[in-house]
Amino acid sequence: MAETEVRLGVIADTHGRLHSQVFDVFAEVDHIIHAGDIGPADLITELQALAPVTAVYGNTDGFDVRTWLPQVARFELDGFIIVVTHGDQFASPGPMVLHESYPDAEIIVYGHTHRALLELVDRTVTVMNPGSAGADRSGQGATVGIMELEPGIPPRARIVQL
């Protein structure tokens, strides 16, 4: 791994359940993104033991989580503008709706649909839904994402089955 490369662990829809495999898959990550429907707030503390976490609340998260997490997080990492949202404010969003809503984002991470998705929009924007790491409502099983960032080249990403 190049020195300037940043490895992200991407997770959503845990609903209070953190599979033990997440700790193996995220063992080498530099940063974790959680796209909402977390469950109890202490789940974020468990993830923070692995790496710094940027998280947003989802539609099923309680007041305890909503008081300290935003609905949308926007930050820059390794030169990439990243937007994280659960996505429920758009019903069941697709990549184009998210790109239109956050036109300056280079990477958009969302959850809510429980369906893993990795798509390039407008040739430059990486949109990822890591699927559900908790409750399997899509029939895909539990999934998370890994994304590697390196300045000057498009992000490399994949969905990982747990």
Largest sheet, described in full? Answer: 5 strands, mixed
How much is the average pLDDT?
Answer: 93
CATH-defined architecture: 4-Layer Sandwich
**Poorly predicted ranges (pLDDT <50, ≥5 residues)?**
none
Terminus-to-terminus distance? 23 Å
Percent helix, as a range, is 10-25%
Spell the H/E element sequence.
Answer: EHEHEHEEHEEEEE
Number of continuous helical runs: 4
Strand content: 25-35%
Structural category is alpha/beta
Main β-sheet, spatial strand arrangement:
3-2-1-9-10
CATH class: Alpha Beta
Task: Provide an overview of this structure.
The chain is α/β, with parallel strands linked by helices and 162 residues long. The protein has one domain (6-161): Purple Acid Phosphatase, chain A, domain 2, CATH 3.60.21. Helix content is 15%, strand content 34%. The chain has four helices and ten strands, in the order βαβαβαββαβββββ. The chain has helices at 20-25, 42-48, 63-66, 95-101, and strands at 6-11, 31-34, 53-55, 72-77, 80-85, 107-109, 117-121, 125-129, 143-150, 153-161. It has a five-stranded mixed beta sheet with strand order 3-2-1-9-10, with helices on one face. The protein has a five-stranded mixed beta sheet with strand order 4-5-6-8-7, covered by helices on one side. The longest helix is centred in the N-terminal third of the chain and has 7 residues, at 42-48. It starts with 5 loop residues before the first strand and ends with a strand. 43% of the residues are buried. The mean pLDDT is 93.
